[in-house]
């Protein structure tokens, strides 16, 4: 099997054109160079350095604790493994909500220090003017509606959003507002498939679903979920394409046995 990377660099206009060409968009998360290089070589369209790193990498119970400096460290690390995919960094909690000035400064840091090519922010109408100013100074922005994990305490848990008609209507409006503000695509998380279909049809920019049905213009998963490395629980919307967590555990157990029984290292592995 070839380990040669795809040659073409994917850009923001490429992602926007994929909707017009009815080509589905693939997106996965990465937090380190090694994983990023594997995803990039596989041909993924977008790599997201998610604030989910707080949970996946650091073991916290939600995404709220991760800092700008930690996110920039992850983004810089991922950049070292990426030459094909579009690299998007998640703006962490309170890095863009306090003031527009703070938001512009922090978004700029992701491009300047983290070498990201776009940032992702959560929210609709309330954040639209800030997004507009980011876009005005040349920072590509990805939106995020539905279950926005930074609002987890307000939602009272990881519940499906947009079930009530008024909430669904607001989300459709928020998507239109985000498009007008200049976002190049919108993540739709944990909403009814029919609502995601309506939003996808109502805007000209791509939608990328996570637990939002098959009508979105693309899909995203947390890579460690897809690989079966994150084993505490499996959300309904996750499909496990491998059981690497189990394989790693088995390999480590065998290593431990070999060390304890003096089977490792062998003469061939010694100098």
What CATH calls the topology of the largest domain is TIM Barrel
Over the alpha carbons, how many angstroms does the gyration radius reach? 20 Å
Global morphology: globular
What structural category characterises the helix and strand content?
Answer: alpha/beta
SSE arrangement, N to C: HEHEHHEHEHEHHEHEEHH
Give the uncertain stretches in residue-range form. Answer: none
Which percent range fits the helix content? 40-55%
CATH architecture of the largest domain: Alpha-Beta Barrel
Compact description:
40% of the residues lie in helices and 13% in strands. It has 271 residues and is α/β, with parallel strands linked by helices.
Task: Describe the overall structure.
This protein is α/β, with parallel strands linked by helices and 271 residues long. The chain folds into two domains: 12-240, Phosphoenolpyruvate-binding domains (TIM Barrel, Alpha-Beta Barrel), CATH 3.20.20.60; 243-271, no CATH class. It contains eleven helices and eight strands. The protein has helices at 12-20, 33-42, 53-56, 68-79, 100-112, 128-136, 152-155, 165-181, 193-202, 223-226, 244-260, and strands at 25-29, 46-49, 86-90, 118-120, 141-146, 185-189, 207-210, 218-221. The radius of gyration is 20 Å and the shape is globular. The mean pLDDT is 95.
């Amino acid at each position: 099997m070839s380990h040669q990377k795809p040659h073409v660099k994917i850009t923001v206009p490429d992602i926007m054109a994929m909707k017009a060409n009815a080509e589905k968009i693939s997106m996965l998360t990465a937090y380190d160079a090694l994983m990023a290089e594997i995803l990039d070589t596989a041909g993924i369209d977008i790599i997201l350095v998610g604030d989910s790193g707080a949970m996946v990498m650091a073991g916290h119970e939600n995404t709220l604790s991760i800092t700008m400096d930690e996110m920039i460290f992850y983004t810089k690390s991922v950049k070292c493994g990426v030459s094909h995919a579009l690299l998007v960094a998640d703006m962490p909690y309170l890095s863009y909500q306090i003031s527009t000035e703070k938001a512009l400064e922090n978004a700029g840091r992701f491009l300047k220090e983290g070498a990201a090519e776009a940032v992702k922010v959560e929210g609709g109408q309330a954040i639209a003017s800030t997004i507009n100013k980011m876009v005005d100074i040349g920072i590509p922005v990805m939106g995020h509606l539905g279950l926005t994990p930074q609002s987890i305490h307000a939602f009272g848990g990881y519940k499906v959003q947009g079930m009530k008609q008024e909430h669904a209507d607001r989300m459709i409006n928020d998507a239109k507002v985000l498009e007008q503000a200049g976002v190049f695509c919108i993540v739709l998380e944990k909403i009814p498939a029919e609502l995601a279909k309506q939003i996808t049809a109502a805007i000209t920019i791509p939608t990328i679903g996570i637990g939002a049905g098959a009508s979105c213009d693309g899909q995203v998963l947390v890579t460690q979920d897809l690989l079966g490395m994150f084993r505490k629980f499996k959300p309904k919307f996750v499909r496990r394409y491998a059981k690497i967590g189990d394989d790693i555990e088995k390999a480590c157990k065998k290593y431990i046995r070999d060390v304890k029984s003096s089977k490792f290292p062998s003469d061939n592995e010694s100098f």
